[in-house]
Structures are given as C-alpha cells and as structure tokens.
Structure to design on (848 residues):
C-alpha cells in the first residue's frame, strides 16, 4: 500500500509526504533529456488507448454516481468520456510531447569586464499543484504540461470524477514507468480526504505553485486561502470598444464573434463600449439582438434600439458566460479607457478602429493581460497564441500573464562561469 | 493636511487609501517617456544635494534618539548620514536614471497564420511596497528603482529613521513635482502607525508586490504573514565545492574571497565542501584559519588541521555572516550535490574545478538562484551582474530569481494587433 493513502497521515502530513516524493522525482525530471520526457508522454498516450475499456468503465461508475447524486446535465457532460473524447486526451498528450522543451533554454548571455560569463537559463518551477473539478481530461492535460516542463505535479480532481481520474492516472503512471521516468512525478491526491485541498493551499515551500482549473467558486476559494502562489484568473470581464473610426462591417463581425462564438469561454466579450460618434452603432446592436443575444444597456444604449434592456449597476461587473451582453455608449477613447480601468477584470480587452493612433493608445493604456486591436477577444487562448496548449490564463501581475503554457511553468537560474575570478 | 496622515483612518483604511492614490499615479507613470522618469530622478538627486543641511539635521535627531534608546553601534552606523553618504545616495539616483528603461520593451514577436501579430511587451508591475529597517538610503534607492521601472511605491521605513526618511522623501517629492511626475508615485507610510506593516502585508489586490529590505527577522515576518507576493531571500547559506581537479591556487583564492572579502553580505560563502581526493585541502584550510576565520568541520575536516573545531548539526544550516565557516569533506560530486540539496538556501552555490564536465554537471544539478563555476560567491550582486543596481536578491521560484533590478520590477502584457480577425 502506498504511503499516499496511508490512513494514519493527517491531510497536512499526507500532502507533505507526497510533496517530498514529488520533489525527489522532480530533481530527476529536471535533468531529463527532452526526448525522454516526450517518450514518456507518448507512452502514456499509448497506455490511455490500450486501457480504453477500463477507463470508460471507470467513467461509467462516475456517471452513474453522478446521476444518482443529481448532478446537472452540464456537469455530467463535463464528466463524461467516450472513445472520441479519450482519443482526444491521448492525442493532446502527443501534441504536448511535440512542443519545444523550454528547460535549459538560455534567456540571455553576457560577459562581464572581468571575464565572468553570465547566463539566465530556464529551469522547471518544481512541484505544482493542480486543483480541478469534474473534467477528467485535466488529469492528463495538466500532468502532461507539468511533465513536459520538468515539473512534478500533485493532481487533486473532483470527487465526482474519482474513478475516471484514477484510471487515467494509472495509465499515465504506466507510461512514465515504461519510459523510465519516475512515477512520483505525477501523483493523484486521494479525494476521500476533503481536507487535502486546504493542506495543498497551505503547503508553502512544499508546493511551489497552485493552478486551479474550474469554476469561479473554486478559483475564488483557492485565491482567498492559498499561501502558495496561485496562477489563475477569476473573471473574464472583457471589453470591446468600438471607436468612431471603426469599419462598420469589421465592428459587427468582431462584436458578434467576441460575444457569441462561444459564450461560455473566459475570452468571451461581456461588455461592448460604443463610441458616441460611431455611425454604425444601431447596426451592431441590431445584429447582436437578432443573433439571439440579450443586451443590457445604459440610457444611451437603450436609446439605440427599443429591444435593449436597461442595465443595472451590477451588469458592468458581471461575467455572464451566456448570450447576454452589457452595452454602454461612451464619449470617446478616454471615456472607454476610464470604463475599462474601473470594470475590467484584466483578462482581455479590445479596440476596433481604423485609426492606428487610437489603437496604439488603447493598447498602451489598457493594463490587462491581453490587449487587442481589431480582433475578437475569443482569440484569448494559448492554442491561438501559438503556445501549443495552455495550463490556464493568468490575470495576476507576477511571473506569467495571459495564456500560460510550458514557458510559464519554468523559472530561471543564473549560471556564472568563471576562471578563478575573485571580487576586489 | 494629506489624507495619508488622517488620524481617523485605521491602518487598513490608511494603506487602502494610499494604495488607491498610488494606483492612480502609477497609471500615469506607466505611460511616461523614459526621459521624464530620468529627469525626475535627476531632479530628486539635485534636491537631495540642495537640502543637505536639512537632511543631516533630521538625521541628527534620529541618531540622538537612537543613542538615547540604546541602539547598537552597528545600528547607529546604518542609520547615520554624513555629506559623503548623502552624496552617495544622490549619485545612486543619477545612476539609476541612466539605466535603460525596460518598460515598453518587446520580449517576443510572432505573426500567426491568420495574420494576428502578437507581442509580449514589458509593463510595470504596479504598486510596490518596500518594508525596511534603519538604513535611510533605502528610501531613495528603492523609490528610484520603482520609479524608473514605472511602478508606484509605498515606503515603510523603520521608526528609528523617521526624521531622516521624511526629509529624504520630501526631497524626492520635490524632484518629482519639478519634473511633472505625480508625487503620489512615491509615498511614505507614517511610522507612528505600527499596524501599517500588517496592513501592507494583507493588502492583496491593492499592493502587487512587497520587497522587505533588512535583517532576517524582518524578512521572516514578511514571508510568514504576507498575502501579497514577496520578493526576498531569507538566508544566504552558500556553498563552495572544491573538486579534486581544482587548481590549488584558484581554490585557495576563491575560498578566501568567498568567505572573507566581506563576511556580512548575503553572497558570502558559509559552507566549504572539500573533495576527499583534493590534494590541496590542508592548504585551503590553513589559509582560511590564518586569515582569521574560525572553521567548524565534520570529522574528516577536523582531521585536516587541529585548529578546525568540531561542527554541530546546526552548523550546516547556519548563515554566520561572520568570519566563521563550516567545512565538510565529501566523497565526490554526487556527495557534494546531496549536501547542497539538503542544506543550501537556494541563494548562491559554487564549484571549483578545472574539469569542465564536473563544472557543467554542478551548474545543471544545483537548483539555486545563482550557480557558479570557478568564481567567488561574493559576485552574487546586481551591480556585479551588470544590472546597474538591485532592489534585492530573490530565492523564491516565481517571477524573478537572483539579483532583481529594473527588469524584475516589470511584468508583461500580450499585445495583439489584427485587421478584423474573428475566431472560426
């Protein structure tokens, strides 16, 4: 029986013990050739395919328990695996295996007048904790991103996905073992211990970074309680400001896409700011309404179309994640900037204008993780940014901002090569 | 009367109010031309020189109060200003004014297949809190580094330096005002409110980063209590491993310099690891003892020289900051790596060897903020690394590691330039 499920350990001891094993495994992982890590990920993908039947059977147990427990249809859908989804998970591992390895990359290099050669070299962060909810694919995705960047990972999934996660984790472990990679690099925190999440959040010095993956209440709890640094975003209250010099067709296309392509993603637009001098405002508003979006506006937005409902003060700070949009008419760029400074969650904000100077002022003055000109906020995504994958999108101000992938899961060390120099 | 000293505000309200003003000032600061920030720093330097008499008079009040309060000689020395020290402070501002501005620098650039142009651009972190002790020069140094990197700063110095800090802060404010830079960018937290430190540490979302500058107890308190990210190092338990293939003269020179050049700096060597096959161990040990260093060794180190005292278990985890050194004899590189993994504080560790492969293995496998080959650990310093200055040395694993200067006081945002792209 593994110490990880030793019932004698209290939650703090359990996490401490798992973290020590993770640290030891990570030290080996940090030194592995990229090819070895890739081989482990490909072996894990092969294992997932090989034990498809077992994983789907385990998932069926979770689905049955979820139905008994009365989980919502949306939650059951997030939980459910089928051959296509499982193949997607396996394929994602292979895609991550093919990404360039950031570990060992030199960020910069200099030679000091005394001959010392200095370089900052990327190294893994160390031990990463992932706290997530019902999606079993996170077990594989997050493990793969951590492994590919040389980090060990403690995975704490939702109790509703316990059988699925155990089955996926077993397949990952088999893949790691097959490739000669220490299996303690990817550990599953037992869900029966509800206090383990609190222990992870408190494990400063043992866990180096926590990444919550899930709904707002999970992220809020993690951000409020963690003594370990957290990489996350709470809200995506994203704005699109349509300036008076916007091309009407582009503005309409961007607004429709930003709001309605997928309403449930964190990059979806939640507030549209229409310049008071924009000629095409009514057309944009009508197009959104006719596409099925509920609009909640300030007085001037309501005056554009009788179908716009009056907004309440709360609307400007609400992430709808639905076919609902708040709309305000603003008096020029400075008013738009002021609205955004007050209400943006610092995730993604965009301007639409054919006036280059207006765009550049917007890009310079909006202080969000992602700022865009003449594009849909729905591009806020690691894959779209060419990162190959993402562990999440961060709106904090330190370490990594916006979509975070392998590079964001590394730190650096200073490497100094001398020939006997002493300091005068 | 400024709201900052409004006696009606409790400490949390006081810090919140100062942080709001800092944030507003910072938004302007973030957009300033480099030349304007430099002009403000040069004007502040000129002001410091102009009001030299007032600053020295204020400092005399602090020194008198410190003597009455029975401060130690070392503490009084850290507190004391004289014309030469004040000129040094003014000159440091001018040096920081001359550093390249990191704000606006593009970290990378790419064009996606859909034509979106992506760039990560450095931006200031935001509002930085500096918590420090008796050295009044920190008031000017830290303010200048924050200002030069576009950050607003809340300065909380020690109560023993209250008059000096107020006088220096007044000069800085005058310089900022003269250059048209918002004076709320550099604010002094009133010392009469002892609870203000706790309020700063709790001000997550209001203050973006805390940098403690002072002794170990201050740093430990800040690290233990802060809900705001902290950039710091607690200890500099730095090792030098002298491999069997080390040049004897280089090894001796490096060991003497790493330990004794200045014993009170965080980059000083605290533990010497001598390879069991190193021929020159006795000479290194003798040279250190004859230079006035107390050596505390394990059994094999004691056998090298009768003047080596036996070490206790504690010695391997002690930062002496004095002419005291722990010495162990180790069985090759792997034993040295194991000792360092167990006892290093992750600050600076070095190897001395003419065997390049040994050096490279050490540099790869030691996971400290700074790793060195064939150089004195005393080079662990922002100035020596060519950074021009440093706000501190960080041993945390996120954001910035090792010496931190202007670049480490920035973060980045993603800037996306499109031409009407929508996501399929």
């Amino acid at each position: 029986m593994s110490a990880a499920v030793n019932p004698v350990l209290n939650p703090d001891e359990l996490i401490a013990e798992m973290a020590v094993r993770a640290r030891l495994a990570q030290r080996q992982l940090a030194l592995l050739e990229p090819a070895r890590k890739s081989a482990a990920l490909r072996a894990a993908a092969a294992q997932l395919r090989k034990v498809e039947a077992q994983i789907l059977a385990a998932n069926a147990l979770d689905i049955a328990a979820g139905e008994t427990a009365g989980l919502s249809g949306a939650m059951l859908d997030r939980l459910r695996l089928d051959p296509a989804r499982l193949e997607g998970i396996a394929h994602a591992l292979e895609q991550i295996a093919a990404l360039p390895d950031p570990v060992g990359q030199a960020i910069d290099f200099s030679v000091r007048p005394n001959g010392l050669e200095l370089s900052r070299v990327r190294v893994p962060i160390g031990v990463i904790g992932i706290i997530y909810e019902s999606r079993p694919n996170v077990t594989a995705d997050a493990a793969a991103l951590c492994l590919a960047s040389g980090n060990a990972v403690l995975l704490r999934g939702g109790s509703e996905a316990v059988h699925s996660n155990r089955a996926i984790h077993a397949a990952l472990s088999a893949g790691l073992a097959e490739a000669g990679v220490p299996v303690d690099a990817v550990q599953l925190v037992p869900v029966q211990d509800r206090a383990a999440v609190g222990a992870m959040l408190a494990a400063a010095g043992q866990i180096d970074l926590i990444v919550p993956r899930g709904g707002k209440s999970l992220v809020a709890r993690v951000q409020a309680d963690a003594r370990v640094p957290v990489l996350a975003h709470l809200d995506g209250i994203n704005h699109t400001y349509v300036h008076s010099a916007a091309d009407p067709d582009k503005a309409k296309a961007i607004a429709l896409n930003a709001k309605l392509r997928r309403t449930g993603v964190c990059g979806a637009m939640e507030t549209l700011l229409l310049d008071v001098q924009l000629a095409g405002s009514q057309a944009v508003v009508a197009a959104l309404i006719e596409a099925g979006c509920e609009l909640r506006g300030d007085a001037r937005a309501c005056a554009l179309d009788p179908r716009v409902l009056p907004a309440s003060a709360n609307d400007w700070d609400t992430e709808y994640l639905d076919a609902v949009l708040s709309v305000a008419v603003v008096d020029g760029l400075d008013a738009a900037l002021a609205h955004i400074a007050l209400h943006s969650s610092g995730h993604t904000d965009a301007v639409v204008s054919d006036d280059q100077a207006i765009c550049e002022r917007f890009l310079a003055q909006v202080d969000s993780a992602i700022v865009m000109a003449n594009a849909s906020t729905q591009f806020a995504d690691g894959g779209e940014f060419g990162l190959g994958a993402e562990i999440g999108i961060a709106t904090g101000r330190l370490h990594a901002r916006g979509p975070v992938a392998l590079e964001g899961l590394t730190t650096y060390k200073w490497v100094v090569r001398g020939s006997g120099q002493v300091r005068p």
